[in-house]
Amino acid sequence: MSRLDMAGKLEILADAAKYDASCASSGAQKRDSRGGKGIGSTTASSGICHSYTPDGRCISLLKILLTNSCIFDCHYCINRKSSNVRRARFTAKEVVDLTLSFYKRNYIEGLFLSSGIIGSPDYTMEQIVEVARSLRLDHDFRGYIHLKTIPDADPMLVEAAGRFADRVSINVELPTVPGLTKLAPEKSAPRIEGAMGQMRLAIEDSKDARRRYRHAPRFATGQSTQMIVGADDGTDRDIVGRAAHLYDRFGLRRVYYSAFSPIPDASAVLPLKRPPLQRENRLYQADWLMRFYTFTPEDVAQTTDPVTGMLPLDIDPKLAWALKFREHFPVDVNRAPKEALLRVPGLGTKAVNGILSARRVRRLRLEDVGRLTVSVKKLLPFIICEDWRPVRLTDRADLKALVAPKPVQLDLFGA
Ligand code: SF4
């Protein structure tokens, strides 16, 4: 095999990293290099938004694997041991140099680093930690660092990752334990959750220490995870339930949902087709309902099909809930509590906050609500205003057809 230069390695290892969706930087500690101190900043500024990922996600981070070689054989993964792909490997120093050089050229705001498992989980984790350590301590790098950690590694190493990174993540991979056992036989759900539990404790300890002592060492501000959707038999109901459990038990910042994409030379146990992308989108909407709209996992589960356990694809889960539980509508925008307003399809959190502030000074009319939303027409069956009260609109049998988005003709050459 010919020796790869840096560009060749980058091409392989950036491409191999594109399957990982869990790399958003929201919630990171604010840090910058004003006053000539250090290099980098966790906050974006104009001009720093380039990407090496062709799928459009995570455009301002250098998102790479340390290596795409792996001793594990997870069926859904293109980098698995039995996969016939070109392999490459960076040294820790090469990743450090690449990050700094891209940073100084304003290509990126930070680094997202993951890896296949080489040698052993501990050895791989040591290499990942060494990248972050060197960036922070040798180069005083103040940009964003997100490290993917390996649950089987020594907990001390996983904790060391948290000391240098802004965000750490441990992928649960699949929504159900049978799915994980079938598709990633070397991984173990209890070990993954054990590592998440330890990380939660370390994050909380660090927050507590920083509240008490101003100079307590910094630690990652949060952890996240990713679930692959559509590779196993897990239904949307299973996925929403697992996500709720993970948020609750481990205080995750985010659960990312990544629609399974068929890979070359795929194992026979995998489905041949990827699930509709809209499914991923609906799961993100359901996730937002739980995190920002006071929906419980049970509320979301009620919007799934009782037989298939799937969320509807043609309408979003909030509208599905409203159509199913019409007795909760219409909601009076001048009197209803915040929780009831948040249930109104078409009212986002910003609009609800706007309504709550505006109604302190006057009674709201339809045109006032209209100024806070994209389309007041869709709200008509669900709200009461000073000058509007729906008459039997909410009970109409064809209400779904009235408020559901119209089907869009797909572009023949679209993605
Ligand atoms: S351990 Fe990670 S890199 Fe290795 S095969 Fe499994 S998913 Fe892929």
TrEMBL record:
KW Iron (keyword) present: yes
Gene3D superfamilies: Aldolase class I
Highest taxon listed in the record's lineage: Bacteria
Cofactor dependence: [4Fe-4S] cluster
SMART domains named among the record's database cross-references: Elp3 (SM00729)
Domain Elp3/MiaA/NifB-like radical SAM core: 60-286
InterPro entries per record: Aldolase_TIM, DNA_rSAM_put, Elp3/MiaA/NifB-like_rSAM, Endo/Exo/Phosphatase_dom_1, rSAM, rSAM_sf, RuvA_2-like
Keyword terms: Iron, Iron-sulfur, Metal-binding, S-adenosyl-L-methionine
Gene Ontology molecular-function annotations: catalytic activity; iron-sulfur cluster binding; metal ion binding
Cited PANTHER family: ENDONUCLEASE/EXONUCLEASE/PHOSPHATASE FAMILY DOMAIN-CONTAINING PROTEIN 1, TYPE II SECRETION SYSTEM PROTEIN K
Protein name according to UniProt: Putative DNA modification/repair radical SAM protein
